[in-house]
Structures are given as C-alpha cells and as structure tokens.
Amino acid sequence: MPMRDLSAGPRVLLRRLRELMAEPLDPQERLDRIVRQIASNMVAEVCSVYVLRSDGVLELYATEGLNPEAVHLSQLKMGQGLVGTIAASAQPLNLSDAQAHPAFRYLPETGEEIYHSFLGVPILRAGRTLGVLVVQNKASRTYREDEVEALETTAMVIAEMIATGELKKITKPGLELDLTRPVTIEGDGYNEGLGLGHVILHEPRVVVTNLLNEDAESEVRRLAEALGSLRISIDDMLSRRDVATEGEHREVLETYRMFAYDQGWVRRMEEAIHNGLTAEAAVEKVQSDTKARMMRLTDPYLRERMHDFDDLANRLLRQLTGFSGRSIGEGMPADAIIFARAMGAAELLDYPRERLRGLVLEDGAVTSHVVIVARAMGIPVVGQAVGAVALAENGDAAIIDGDDGQLHLRPVSDVLKAYEEKVRLRARRQEQFRALRDVDPVTKDGKRISLMMNAGLIVDLPHLPESGADGIGLFRTELQFMIASTMPKLEEQEAFYRNVIRQADGLPVTFRALDIGGDKVVSYFRAHEEENPALGWRAIRLSLDRPGLLRTQLRALLRASADAELRMMLPMVTEVAEIHAVRDLLQKEVQHLSKFGHSLPRKLQFGAMLEVPALMWQLDELMAEVDFVSVGSNDLFQFSMAADRGNARVSDRFDMLGRPFLRILRDIVRAAERNKTPLTLCGEMAGKPLSAMALIGLGFRSVSMAPTSIGPVKAMLLSLDADRLTETLNAALDDRQPREPVRELLTRFAAENGIPV
C-alpha cells in the first residue's frame, strides 16, 4: 500500500524550526518562539514544553496559550498528572477529554481548565525521556495520526536543544536538568582501585546533526539503499560456511535478519521521513521511541532483544552517515574511563595504556579475560553496571570505585572531593605496602611463601622490582599475538622473549605456551564459530593441531633463553598424552638448534597447567611427567562447577572458598607432596588476601598474582601462623556436617588473630 502524502504543514513547521535554531536568540526566546510556531502550525490553542529536571520534576519551560506567569513555576513529578504519565511511560497520550482521564491533575496557575482535547508526546533522546511536549484545544477532538507523528518529530528538535546544554542558561540556580544529573550505579568490583576521569564510549553513538530533509522521496530512497546493504551483510553472515548452523550466535543473527526485514519498522521510518526528517534522523527517532518503550520491560529475554534491535539500528545509522567510528585514541582524554556493554581482551589492549584510568562493563564477570588483562594493566574495573552506557555521554566526568563496585557519573563536588581524599589515602596505603617490598615473605611460624607476579606485556615488567615479587609465575605469551596486526614472526617472538628475560634480571620467568581461542580472539587467525568456545578448540588443542605455530614459539623461546634458564608450561592440558606430544616437538626443536650451532638454555623446566578436571584422575602420572605444575584456578573452578566464568548469572553462584573446590585443591597439594613436584597457583584466588590465606592453609607455598596484589598478600602472611590455619582448615574440610561456610570461618580466624585481609 503506497504511503499517503501528508499535508505540507509538518514540513513547513520543521523548516521554520530549523530557521529558528539558526537565529542568534537567547534560549528562552528561542523556546517561546518554537511553541508559538507549533501552536500556529497545528491550529492548537495551547503548546507547552515541560523539561525533566535531575530531581525528577517536570518544569514548565515555555507555553503559548497558558498563563505565561506559570513558566518556571508549574511543576509535576514524574508519573504525576498527564504530563508526568507521559514522561514515565515514554508514550504519547491523545485525549478528546483530558479532564476525564484518571491521571488528570489541575494546576490552577496555568488556566488550562478550559481546554479539553490534549496531545502530549515524550521528548526523547537515545531512549531517555528529557521532557514532554503538549498541544491542547478547547473543542473536544482526537488528534489525527499524522499530527501525533508531526509532534513527535518536532520533539526531536527540542531534544537536541536540551542535549546541547542550551537550556542550562535558563534553569534556576541550584537545579540541574535530568540529562546532566549525577548518577550513581551499584555494580560489582572486578578489580580494585580508584579512577577519576572522563567517559569514552567503546562504541560511540552516531550523532545525527542533519535532522530536517529537503526532499522526502530522495531520503526514502537513501533509506531503502541502506536497508538493502544492511540486509545483504546479514544474509552473508548467515550463509557463510564458517558460521555454525546452531547456537546462540546464530539466534542473534536470525533476530537481526527478522528486525531488518520487519515492515512495521520500515513503515515507521518512512512515515518519519514524510513528516520532514532525514533518513538518519528517522532511524534515530524510531530507535529512540522503541528503546524508550522496551527499557521499561522486565522480561530479560525481551530486554536482550532490545540490545539486538539497538545494535541493528546503529548499524543502519552507520550505513547512512558513513560513520566508521573513531580510530583508537582519537580524541581520547589523558584520563579515560572506558564504558562498554561487553568487550574482548584484545579490544582493551588497543587503547593507549598511559591514558586509561578505568573500565566499566555492563556485562562480563570477574574472571573473564578482559578483566584479567585489565588487572594485569593495573586498571580498576566495575562490572554489571547496568544502564551505564545509555546514561553516559563522551566526555562526562566519572569516578570508578573498583573497591566497592560503584560508578559515579557526573559526580557532584562533594563526591569528587571525597574521592580525591580516598585516592590520597590509598596512595599512603600503597606506600606502606611498598615498604614491605624487601621484607622476606615468611609466615609467623617460619614458612616461606614465594610470591610471584602475572604479566604478559613489556609494560608489566617494571612492576617486578617495584612489587618485590620473587619472579614471574605466569607470563601470558598470547597477549603479544593479540595486540599484533599480523602473526609475529620467529625473529619478533625471539626478540620479545629475550627482552622479557633481560628485564627480569635473573629472576625466574615462567612462559605459558600460546593460549588463544575461546574469547581470546586473534584477528588474523580465522577460527571456526563454536557453541561452547571455552570447551572447544583452544590453547594446547589448537597448538597441537597447528604444530607449525607451536614449533615456531618453542624455537623462539629456546633461542631467547640461550645460556639462561627456560621455564615454560602448557595451558589446558587434558591428558598426559598431550604432554608427550609437545615434548616430542620440543625435542625436535632442540635437535634442530643444536645441528645449526645455536646455544641452548642451560636449564629447561617443563611444566603443565592444571585447569581441566580430568587431570584430577591422572595426578600421579602428571607429576611424573613434568618438572612443575601450576594450578589455573579460574578455569579449574569454572570447569569443576560447570559455571561459565564469563556469564554473570552463574559466575558468582558458587564460591571458590567453598568446600568442594578447596577439597580439590587440597588433593592436588597432597599429590604434589607425594611426588615431590613443585606446585604453584596462578589465578583470581591468589590475589586476594583472604583466599591467598586459604591457599597457604592448604599447603601452597608458591602463588602468582597481579603485581598490585603482592603488597596486601604479603602483609597478610607476615601475621599468619600457617600450621595453626592448616589444622583449622583441614578440620573444616573433613567435617561432613559443616556448621558454617569456610569463607566465614576464614574471616573469623583472621579477625581473631589480627590478620589483615
């Protein structure tokens, strides 16, 4: 059915509004003339603009037809009266008899009792309600559909006026508009630390500046062409052979295709164009309307579909505007706090480290790889910060508190001062930890604990002497691959590893063989889509299937360690046979280098990571085959509990200090003692004083952690009687009718013995 041709009225109005926006007027005069133009064009006796303040009050900012004395005096709370109802629901109200509506509230100062018909629409931007635009008439009538559309379109112009901050000049002193109100979001602290800085949106929104069209038909054609390109790209993704035919990713793409071909969506955008908007402004209008309605849904499935729709609309906006995003670092402040719904580890590494002050995630979990990388970089992280991306704008002031899991957006001066003082206190606390740098990490009863640090980048290495660590217990070699645009060549890898060894200055470095796959995406390495990537083709599995990749790394490590000690370990070992296979490749590389006269390491320590529960039934065979074992607590925990560490709904469901997992760790310690095999642990557990205390109680004498954690863990162990804790902990783990959780028992033990945790 062809689109009906709307009257020229809305287009004339929008053209006049565009002229008004360009004139050098003060904000109140501009707003007063806008409402007069709307009233005249729509043959309305009243037109009023209500703006939402930060205190949740809708204030009358301009009116044509009501008592002018009511401007900046009349107020309604969110949800109160017809205007408040529109703001709360983000949906229009079209009434022939407004006073008969149950939400009607009479404001005597306005003189509106003589008006019966009422049309109000929300003023929306990015799905957020910024105010309400209203027209009224004395005669009872229902406004036509095209009039509703025209008023919604006009509201976009006012939304931009609010967003630019122009109305701040006529806002009463001491009050703020909702768009600039301070917001505090309670999330989860994923990495300790404080960050004061300014927002950088990881996926910046397309800002539509050209709102009004000159030729509706040409804009409809532009929309159709962009939709065609978008549909082709989605169809292409679905038809590719490397996209699995089943799985959650497939469902997302199918949802995209459903939205892309939805005629209702297309019709609403075309109507907005015929009402005077450009194609991109029409996409933004429909996106904002839909988002505002869906943001109020409680069903998690439907809210997830909102994100799918939002992403699709953003793709369409990029098609129309040619927006390709900014290059990493472009326009980035020196104190950037990255805001993202979700993020891969490699994406974080693209940002200049020296400018990063924090990371805010709406999704993710404390043990997801991007958080691990952020922790290695010493960046505070707050996760599960629901709604943060929608509420933030590039350049907004922000405070991230990784200790308490709080995010303060556009903080008031008192909050800012409090955090500046907190930063100073934290600096003094870090100074106290630095004073322990040269203190030997020995418990009160004489047990020496080796405190190692985790690393993966050259920028991590200065932390080694600063932290007082005994060495690097885990060097993640995959980070070099993740930040490179092409596969690092043999010579590049060799130079990199030699630099690491040189900067370690004689302290031991344990290199983990390449661990890519899962969420560790390497752009130049094409991997197949997998339904369960954490359980799929990754780490040693991938390396054994691509022996050329593994042999190049082994050769580089051997050459870089010439006349020094080489410690290397294999990730995600499932069967002892995998160790044999890698040993064979390693021996071939040793023979190759010897044949051509290359110097070899004076000592080679070959180890394995214990991350897969299947090794629990091969412990003695494992210990006999390797020089040392390193427990990867993050993966071992997620696989043991069948709880995806990247899924926030289940990642915190089970406790690492719960009896089942501590019993697993105790069995590993006992097997290492039985076989006289050196044992260490690297992972989330090692870096927190309370869980590190539990590890010492279980019998671990070497742990590896982020460099910032070494001071607090050392302070803990210096006050600890390890034998007494072991006795207490073993009794708790052997108790078949436990009376209290182990975490509570450990917390009480620390408090009673004056141990700082």
Automatic annotation (TrEMBL):
Catalysed transformations (reactions): L-histidyl-[protein] + phosphoenolpyruvate = N(pros)-phospho-L-histidyl-[protein] + pyruvate
Keyword line: Cytoplasm, Kinase, Magnesium, Metal-binding, Phosphotransferase system, Sugar transport, Transferase, Transport
Domain GAF: 26-172
Pfam families: GAF (PF01590), PEP-utilisers_N (PF05524), PEP-utilizers (PF00391), PEP-utilizers_C (PF02896)
Protein's GO biological process: phosphoenolpyruvate-dependent sugar phosphotransferase system
A Gene Ontology term for the protein's cellular component: cytoplasm
InterPro entries: GAF, GAF-like_dom_sf, PEP-util_enz_mobile_dom, PEP-utilizing_PTS_enzyme, PEP_util_C, PEP_util_CS, Phosphohistidine_dom_sf, PTS_EI-like
Enzyme class of the recorded protein, top EC level: transferase
Any one GO molecular function term: phosphoenolpyruvate-protein phosphotransferase activity
Cofactor(s) it depends on: Mg(2+)
Location (main, coarse): cytoplasm
Entry's localization field: Cytoplasm
Protein EC: 2.7.3.9
Alphabetical list of PANTHER family matching this protein: PHOSPHOENOLPYRUVATE-PROTEIN PHOSPHOTRANSFERASE
Family, as annotated: Belongs to the PEP-utilizing enzyme family.
Name of the featured protein: phosphoenolpyruvate--protein phosphotransferase
Originating organism: Pseudorhizobium flavum
